[in-house]
Amino acid sequence: MPGLLQLPPELLARIVEFVAIGKPAQDDSCDFGNKNKYQASKDPAFSSWNRPYNKFGLTPRPDVASLQNLRLASRHFSHACEVQLYCCVRLLPDEASASWYNEILSTPRLAGSVQKVIFQTREVPVGKDSSWACQFPGPDDDCVEPHPFFLDALDQVGQFPNLEHVKMVFSIKCVGPRGFDDGNYQECEGFREEILSAFYAGLNHREHPATKVYDLSIKDLQDITPQVFIDGTDEDENGFVENYKQVMSKITDLSLQLATEENEYTPENTLHIPESHDFFGHELKTYWLGPIAENLVYLKLYTSEMYFGMYPKCNLRTFPRLRKLLVGNLSVVNDDPIDWILCHAATLEQLTLDCAMIAVGAKFNQRTVDVANRRVIYLPLTVEEGRPCYRPQPRPKSTQQRWLWSTRWHHIFKRFQHNLPHLKYFVFGEGNRGQNACFDEAEILSCKLTDEVSVL
Predict the structure, then answer these.
(1) Closest CA to 150 of 105, 99, 115
(2) d(CA 402, CA 262)
């Protein structure tokens, strides 16, 4: 130990950082016994350390216990461990968590260590009735309306002087305006909108705005854009639209996982819920990505369960400064999504495709389809009750329309190889779907190819 403590402070801090990051355990629970048959027998094992690693990519950090133990080993390690322990703070919807949050905030030394804050609207974000759930919600986790202490914590977030990363985590389960809330603690549209309004108000607080925040993440954002964003004006004194614009103007790193409503009783109709088509076809591009397109250098775009790209169709624009792109649950049915990735060739350095799927064949009964180009035909954008509508065009008859596509992943990989000259890191695999953790663990996804056929 004496020899170790004689190392320069920079090396000691680096040792503590490695303890904080740890090496995340690989979760094979979703493999169902299948091995990666495409890995060469003499290939070196893949390691996430071979590429840039963001210590905030995992939530929460994997080895807090080791940091706590190391902090007690020596006064030399105490401060460095304290910085790592308090660099990421998570607020749960209970008063004990809020009390701990306020204690950190009121201690200047600890508040100065905080670089990331995670706001979690429920103790078990996956929800009591979700197939991912492992436990029931907490005693105060009713999701009827935001708790006052939670809103108060949102209001104070800008008081962390070195805050750079913020994350909001909603429930994976959501209910739309025409959906049926069966009482299983689903977060309704109004609940989420009130949280988002307070979230952006806290980041753009008049007295203590979070001016250093450049990295924003929202997990399980419902695929319904608040009406005030569409109208473009604030109807009350909260200044939701203005706060949103001010905060997003500073964001260069954006992570979104989109939650979609599930038709529990007739799941075959889930893909026909109109809000999903409106959001992926128009709202995502116009209200969430469009205003910050010129600034983005990092984009992580996932869905919680639904595949997107083919149906619902996803329209996205080009990001002229984009260097890192991580996409989860993308369905590839023609060259459009590949061409969209390749249009970032001038800047793109890192590409991750998580749970991406090629639809080698498709069949539609009630939608108009351009079979030659493998596209579902959508009606021109219209406005109904003040909201833009982007809906697939119905067919007058139920005659089946189908197509087959001969393109496979090795064709697409070749296009990446020859047309992305600045690409340094490419990952293609399947994340931890069994725990709804793909979004959180995207930074450590490893390459893996398996033989799997899905029918949607």
Answers:
(1) 99
(2) 25
218 forms bridges with which residues in the sheet?
Answer: 168, 256
pLDDT, position 297 = 96
Count of residues for the chain? Answer: 456
Residue 44 pLDDT class (50, 70, 90 cuts): very low
Report the Cα 253 to chain-centroid distance in Å: 11
Is the pLDDT confidence value at 123 over 50? yes
Taking alpha carbons only, the member of 309, 256, 265, 324 closest to residue 287 is 256
Mean pLDDT computed over every residue of the chain: 82
Q: Which of 73, 75, 66 is nearest to 9 (CA)?
A: 75
Two structure tokens written together for 17? 């950082």
Please give the structure tokens belonging to residue 65: 């216990």
pLDDT at 130 over 70: no
Count of alpha carbons within 13 Å of 75, Cβ hemisphere only? 0
Compute the average pLDDT of residues 211-234. Answer: 92
Whole-angstrom distance between the N-terminal and C-terminal Cα of the chain? 58
CA dist., res. 342 & res. 420, Å (int)? 7
CA distance 318 to 340: 7
Residue 264 zone, left/alpha/beta (φ > 0; ψ -120 to 50; rest):
alpha
Per the listing, tokens 């949103």 go with: 244
Say what angle helices 64-73 and 75-85 make with each other, to 10 degrees. Answer: 150
Strand 375-376 vs strand 369-370: parallel, antiparallel, or unpaired?
antiparallel
Cis amide bond preceding 108, omega within 30: no
pLDDT of residue 362: 85
Residue 188 main-chain phi, psi, to 5 deg: -80, 170
